[in-house]
Design brief:
The protein has 263 residues and is mainly alpha-helical. The protein has a single domain, classed as Mitochondrial carrier fold (Alpha/alpha barrel). It is built from 9 helices and no strands. The chain is elongated. The two termini are 28 Å apart.
Amino acid sequence: MRFSSVTVGTQNHFDLLRTLYEGAVAGATAGVVVETVLYPIDTIKTRLQAARFGGKILLKGLYSGLAGNLAGVLPASAIFVGVYEPVKKKFLEILPDNYNAIAHLLAGTAGGATASLVRVPTEVVKQRMQTGQFANAPDAVRCIVAKEGARGLYAAKRDLYDPENALIGAFAGAVTGAITTPLDVIKTRLMVQGTSKQYKGVFDCVQKIVREEGASTLTKGIGPRVLWIGIGGSIFFGVLERTKKILLDRRHENKSSEISKTQ
């Protein structure tokens, strides 16, 4: 009886690790595909949001910073899905069926919070490069750390805790993208300001934007953002589910071959 319980416990532990591994692989694959395909749209959105007083934006170098960004997107996406899948699975087992949405929301929040440790520095470097402040990722990291300290790589995180993570995780789509555009504008301004320190924080940023540029500035980049999230969401989950299916099929094939060898 004791042997049986130990066996079940070991199996559950193995299943959790397998879910974590497969989620990480699928998440990393989906994240890289989405980022590569839609990067030009994201660059346009960032430049629109960073431009002050109706300044013109450049439409060249739309893939500026992609390589460095992928280096961060790969682990961030892997971490997000790697945490999201087992947490979701656990909550779905614990919570009643009519609380499935809460399970997804909690899992999305846990995944987003964990992945932000990698994603936020990646986003800071990416946006500085997209706005032409640096030519490559290593130089960007060195200069930011030298001038602003390690905290510079987490600009906006300590002020804006990215509530869109949970929203997007639960209700992913274009509507969410439109609603959270003001948050994204604020995040972009805080991330690209560097040592100029035009804004002291979230509320100061909102007040100055509304006072100096008008409230409509908070909706800058809404078109590219909605497009990015709408298309990106479908690509991400499409690639994610496809990769998970490939891994599952491979696991079944290995299990079948093992069974045939023992017969």
